[in-house]
Amino acid sequence: xxxxxSAFLERYRRxxxxxxxxxxxxxxxxxxxxxxxxxxxxxxxxMLLESLQRQLERxxxxxxxxxxxxxxxxxxxxxxxxTVDVGWEMRNAAGDVVWEFALMYTLTAPERGWKIxxxxxxxxxxxxxxxxxxxxxxxxxxxxGT
Length: 146
Prior knowledge:
single chain, alpha+beta, six-stranded mixed beta sheet, 6 strands
């Protein structure tokens, strides 16, 4: 099972590194939930493509050139569903870590291969330190403003 998950995550990593929105979209189920301080429901392929493109643009602005992942754990929910905990390191062109975080993905295998149906941070600090601004927590909730 871990080798299948690693292969899925490697395809996901390569698609992000190659800035291939279509390849990324093939690895995400529609509908999909993106959870953080707010929950975003991706309900159409068009919404998914736009969301992935914005995330790639934020990666570019933060200087992300590559990513590395560690499979932290996984749990089978039932035959077609599982949760997967993944640690990510986002690196710049020099190989320096831009930021690190961990996510929990819920995956499904609807026809063939895994697809992401939900993603959520494993660490509350992810949104505070994420330089891309994705899922940003308002300063007022952090006690850093009004």
